[in-house]
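User: Can you predict the 3D structure for this chain?
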Amino acid sequence: MLGSDFPREEAAAARLEQLTSERISTGYIAYPISRYAEDAARPGDSLHQIKKRAKKKLCSPYKGSSSTANCHPLFDHSEASPRHIKQRVLLTGFNTETFATALIGLERVDSHLRLNIREDIPQPLRTSPTGFQQVVEIANRYFTSKRMADPEDQIRIPAYVDPKGILDSIKGENLSYTSENQVEYYERITSDGSNHRFITTSPARLNEGDIVEVQFTIALVESNTTNHSNAKLTFTTKPVLRSITLLDNTFSEIYRSLLANQPRKPSLKRKVGHAEEDAMETQQKLKRMVIDTEK
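Assistant: Here is the predicted structure, written as C-alpha cells:
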C-alpha cells in the first residue's frame, strides 16, 4: 500500500491481505517474495541445498503482489549522477503477516546475492521505519547518462507518463531515457464482480493509500567509502522499480475525503517587512496635516 500514515488501518490491512491471497491463488504469481522466507530453510536441508534452491528461484521471472516482486540478480555499475530525478514509491503492509514475511524474504535474497561478492564494509538491506510501520522504498531513475546508455536501447518517453513533454525537455543532450528507466503503470478493472482485466494507466492515478502490486528487480550498486584515507569497497542494495499496478483505490478515496472534510485551523498572519509600520507613520502625518480646502 502506498504511504504509511493512514486512518482505518485494520480495514485496509484486511483488504491488503485478501488481495495478496487472491493474486497468489490465481497462479499468475508463480513465486511471491514472501515465500523466499518460508522456503529458505527446510528441516534436514544442508546449506548447499538451500543456496542451490535459492539460486534456481532467483534466476526465474516472477510476478509480484503488493508485498511481492520480480527478483533476479542485477549488478548495476552505473555512475549516473545522483541528481537525476526518480520515479519512486513508498510501500507499507500495515505490519500484516504477509508483508512482514516478505521483508524477511527480501533480506534473504539480499544475503544470497552477497555470497558471491567481496566487500570491505557489508551494507545489508534495510527498511525504513515510519512511525509504527515498516516502509520499503522502491525507485528508478528517469534518465541514464548518455555515455552509459546503449544507443539502441534509447526509447521515447510514453505520453501517459509525460503528457506535456516536460521530462523530454529537461533531459537535454547528456541524458537518455532507456528501457532500463521505463516504469509501466497499470490499473486492474473489475467487471461482473469477478472478471478482471488490466489497462495501461497514468502515474497520476496513484495516490497515498492505494493498494498496489509492484514488480521490481534488485541491483547491487558498487560504491567506495573513504575512511582515514583508505577506500573501502561496499555494495548498496537497491530495489529498482519496473511496474506498478493499481488494485484498489477505495481507501485512498476515503483518505482524501477525510482530509477534505477536516475543519480548517485558523492560522496566524505572518508579518514580514515594514509595510504596516510605514502605513501607521503615514496615518500619523495625515492627522498632523492641515488641509486648506478654501479657494
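Confidence is low (pLDDT under 50) at residues 45-80, 290-295. The radius of gyration is 26 Å.
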